[in-house]
Structure to design on (132 residues):
C-alpha cells in the first residue's frame, strides 16, 4: 500500500518549457523547479517532470496505450477539477464520458491534452473497489 512518504515520479517529453509550465499551472499543479531543459511539478501529490525534447513529441496522440492522470476516490473533487479545466479553457482530448456503463467498473472520465500532445486522464469510479 502507498504511504505518504512515497511519491510517484513520471518523466515526459515537452516541446517548449513556457507553454508547458503555463498548462500545468492552469491545471492547478505547483511548479517545483525549472531548469533550461526541464520543469518539475507537484502533480496532485506526485512528481511530473517535463523534459525539453521537441523530437520526442507524439504527433498523432492516441489514448491507448500511453496516457497518465489521476483516479479520484471523491466525486466532488473529480467534478471540481472538471469545472476548473472547463473554466480555464484547458484543451480536452475527450470530453467527459461514462465508460463500462452498467458494469461494476463503471466510471466517468475525461482526457486533456497538454501542449506537447501528452494525454492526461482523470476519472472517478462509482465503486471504490474498482480503482485497482
Amino acid at each position: 500500500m502507498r504511504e505518504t512518504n512515497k511519491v510517484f515520479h513520471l518523466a515526459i517529453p515537452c516541446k517548449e518549457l513556457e507553454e508547458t509550465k503555463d498548462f500545468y499551472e492552469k491545471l492547478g499543479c505547483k511548479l517545483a523547479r525549472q531548469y533550461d531543459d526541464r520543469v518539475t511539478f507537484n502533480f496532485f501529490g506526485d512528481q511530473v517532470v517535463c523534459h525539453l525534447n521537441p523530437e520526442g513529441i507524439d504527433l498523432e496522440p492516441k489514448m491507448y496505450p500511453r496516457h497518465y492522470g489521476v483516479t479520484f476516490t471523491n466525486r466532488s473533487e473529480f467534478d471540481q477539477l472538471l469545472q476548473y479545466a472547463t473554466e480555464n479553457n484547458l484543451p480536452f482530448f475527450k470530453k467527459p464520458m461514462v465508460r463500462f456503463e452498467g458494469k461494476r467498473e463503471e466510471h466517468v472520465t475525461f482526457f486533456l491534452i497538454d501542449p506537447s500532445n501528452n494525454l492526461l486522464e482523470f476519472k472517478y469510479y462509482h465503486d471504490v473497489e474498482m480503482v485497482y
Q: What stands out?
A: The helical segments are 17-26, 75-87. The mean pLDDT is 94.
